[in-house]
Amino acid sequence: MLVQVGVDRGRRPLGHREVAPARHPPSIGGVESVSRAIREGAVLAGLSELARFRTRLGAAERDHLTRLVASWGLLADLSFSDLLLFTPVHVDDGVRYLVASHVRPTTSQTIYREDRVGILVDAAERPLVDLTYRSGRRNDGQVRNERLGDEVKVKAVPVRHRGRVISVVSSEYSPSIRRLHGELEKAYRGVYDRFARMIAAGEFPFAHGEVTAEDAPRVGDGVIVLDEEARASYLSPNAVSALHRAGVHVSVIGQPLSEVGFEQGVVSRAFATGQPCSEELERGADVAVLARCIPLLDDGAVTGGVVLLRDISELRHRDRLLVSKDATIREIHHRVKNNLQTISSLLRLQGRRLDEPTAKAAIEESVRRIASIALVHETLSREPGEDVPFIEILRPLMRMVEEGLVNPEHPVTFSIEGDPGRLPATTATALAVVLTELLQNAVDHAFPADLDPAPDGNRLEVALRNDGGELTLAVTDNGCGLPADFCLDEVGLGLSIVRTLVRTELNGTIRVEPAGLPAERDQVAGGTWDRGAARPGTTVELRVPSGMS
Questions:
Q1: How many Cβ atoms sit within 10 Å of the Cβ of residue 405?
Q2: Three-state SS string across 413-476, please?
Q3: Which of 245, 434, 447, 534 makes the best surface tag, with the fewest CB within 10 Å?
Q4: Backbone dihedral region of 129: left (phi > 0), alpha (psi from -120 to 50 degrees) or beta?
Q5: Smallest Cα–Cα separation from 462: which of 424, 427, 422, 431?
Q6: Whole-angstrom Cα distance, residue 197 to residue 297?
């Protein structure tokens, strides 16, 4: 049984899964040992790893094949064929060929239901591939496909890099899959043949070609074939529709695109540089067409080109709606922040009129809680989207607690360790309130007025770690520690708020324990700590889902 690697049902070339390579590639002997190596190397991943661990290709040659595979969905669509990349594997008794990548066409039916990547064949099974690799010339022929029960047409093209043949591309299709041979099929196959000549000459893929984006136009979106004078020699029906959307309603055949009102910049740059170029063309506020021009070369000279067109008007309309929606959401957060600040101001006014210390303290605590929520909305009013950099909330929040609660005669040094990155707004809001309560609780209870400062000063540290799935947050002080009868379920309002938010809103856990070493924790837990001993401090640790995608 042969291991097949990297099945991909989308349009990415097969064989491009990110999987760890084999740690110790086995030495290559006969074909049996190679087959066994592939079976044992089920961790084989993408093309670069296959080439690196199973062939003698150098880094530059592997990069050349990687660029080829990155853009050969275009070639599969133009040829109406499955494309297989055969890379030679040298063994004791000759050369075998490993299928390093496989792409299926979207313009026709595939002849391979299963993925071919990772399959090893010999010269007898693939004589055209072997002949093409050894001769360095293109060859056409047939090969038997057992699943179809029919002969399959094969066009083998040598992949040349710096004058040396390093692999073979095999274009394969079944004559039994009927398709009308009209003008479109003739034009597409003609363009593919020109690309095949470029591959055989080492002129494709382009050494410095731009990376194809996800929204880049494809063959099915619209194709214009240009001659060496940049005049249109063929337009696919979808290309005609795209030009109509762009306001071009006249015949384009035999004319440069610039003479019919279509910007020629992208074509001019591609023909001048000999490299692919892309440009987004807008017609008013409602029409946008993405054009990508790929030059066709012959011995280094540009002899024509292919322009792929995609109508992206709807995509850009959605982008504008998202921008508008984002601006509206930020404005809402700004107004919520203003309203919360107004409520805080009203509470402060009310607090000044109170004489009862307990009531004044309750008002001040409420103001700080509201202010912590306002900080989140203030950050959201500046940031796009619904995720916020939590560190930008934490810093002002700690300043607020320090300025509002710390007695200058008993200073406390605040510090932050780690950065949790961006968090969803709902998570950030609840965490801001929780941190406010924990910091306030630490300042109030860890450093009582009759406690002498620690030799290195009173300290309060917030440590954060986010592994992408779980956020760990720890608030640690070097204060007097926990009372012997401490119970998290029997605490005051502040820690009750923390416990409720962590367990219900954040779906997390909370743990409170002495901050010292295990032996010190045991001593404190037994209630034996006295003020003459080293101060144990307290750590409150939260673990919550970070909500990161």
A1: 16
A2: EEEEECCCCEEEHHHHHHHHHHHHHHHHHHHHHCCCCCCCCCCCCEEEEEEEEECCCEEEEEEE
A3: 534
A4: alpha
A5: 431
A6: 9
Give Cα separations from 412 to 398, 442, 446 (angstroms).
Answer: 11, 10, 10
Most confident of 37-41, 208-212, 263-267, 373-377: 263-267
Spatial distance between the Cα atoms of 236 and 227, rounded to a whole number of angstroms: 15
The answer for residues whose C-beta is within 8 angstroms of residue 342's C-beta and 6 or more apart is none
Measured between alpha carbons, how far is 156 from 159 in angstroms, rounded to an integer? 10
What b/e readout covers 227-239, taking b as 16+ CB neighbours within 10 angstroms? eeebbbebbbebb
Residue 203 backbone phi and psi in degrees, to 5: -95, -5
Q: Which parts of 283-356 fold into alpha helices (H)?
A: 313-352
CA quadruple 110, 112, 115, 116: dihedral, nearest 10: -120
**Which of residues 238 and 287 earns the better pLDDT score?**
238
Q: Which amino acid is at 269?
A: R
Residue 64 to residue 492: CA distance in whole angstroms: 67
| Phi, psi for 18 (deg, rounded to 5) | -85, 90
Token code pair at residue 329: 């959401």
Residue with more model confidence, 428 or 221: 221
CA 433/CA 198 separation, integer angstroms: 63
Are the C-beta atoms of 292 and 216 separated by less than 8 Å? Answer: yes
Q: How far apart are CA 387 and CA 429, in angstroms?
A: 11
199-208, 266-275, 440-449: lowest mean pLDDT where?
440-449
Kindly provide the b/e burial profile for residues 358-370, where b requires at least 16 CB atoms within 10 angstroms of the residue's own CB: eeeeebbbbbbbb
Q: Find, among 117, 55, 125, the residue nearest to 84 by Cα.
A: 117
pLDDT tens-digit readout, 49-77: 666 656 778 889 999 999 999 889 999 99
- φ/ψ of 11, rounded to 5, equals -95, 0
For the residues 81-93, what does the mean pLDDT come to? 89
Do residues 136 and 150 touch, judged by C-beta distance below 8 A?
Answer: no
Of 122, 65, 68, nearest to 90 (Cα)? 122
Q: How far is it, in rounded angstroms, from Cα 13 to Cα 70?
A: 7
Q: How far apart are CA 544 and CA 427, in angstroms?
A: 9
Residue type, 123: A
Residues 383 and 387: their CA atoms lie apart, in Å, by 8
Task: Kindly state the tokens that stand for 460.
Answer: 């309060």
Best CA proximity match to 81, nearest among 7, 11, 155: 155
